[in-house]
């Protein structure tokens, strides 16, 4: 199992949780972004900088992700593509996307995108709270513990 992080929009507090978990359990962790991402010195953690461009980081992850890997992303199309390749996808707020839930989330995302395209203000995501950080940490720990069994 490798842990892929869609690092362009991942909150720093979530990256810190990922760094600690990667070292604690020894899982290979790759942060993918179209800009330089600083990572702590660790044999388990590295960054992959991809050329700029729309969804370049997402495309790089999809190209490399394998069955059984874990992708951390809030990007619904990336999560859907990862699940289609047999990977797990985890939102930085702790929601584990499944093959059952991703179709609904993708449909809702596309609907909201159409509304925004029509000029309707749909608001943004809710503020990131400590409970989101805790939910993510709990879910990540659970997934990594299952990996060891």
From TrEMBL:
Family matches, as Pfam families: DUF188 (PF02639)
Domain of life: Bacteria
Database matches in PANTHER family: UPF0178 PROTEIN YAII (PTHR35146)
NCBIfam families: PRK00124.1 (NF001095)
Family stated for the protein in its record: Belongs to the UPF0178 family.
Protein name listed in UniProt: UPF0178 protein NM961_22975
Native organism: Tahibacter harae
């Amino acid at each position: 199992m490798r842990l892929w992080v869609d690092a362009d929009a991942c909150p720093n507090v979530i990256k810190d949780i990922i760094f600690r978990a990667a070292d604690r359990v020894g899982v290979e962790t790759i942060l993918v972004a179209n800009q330089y991402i600083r990572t702590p010195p660790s044999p388990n953690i590295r960054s992959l900088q991809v050329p700029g461009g729309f969804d370049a980081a997402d495309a790089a992850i999809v190209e490399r992700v394998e069955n059984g890997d874990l992708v951390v992303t809030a990007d619904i199309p990336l999560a859907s593509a990862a699940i289609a390749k047999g990977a797990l996808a985890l939102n930085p707020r702790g929601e584990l996307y499944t093959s059952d839930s991703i179709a609904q989330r993708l449909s809702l995302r596309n609907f909201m995108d159409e509304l925004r395209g029509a000029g309707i203000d749909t608001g943004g995501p809710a503020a990131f709270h400590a409970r989101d950080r805790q939910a993510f940490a709990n879910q990540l720990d659970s997934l990594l513990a299952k990996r060891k069994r």
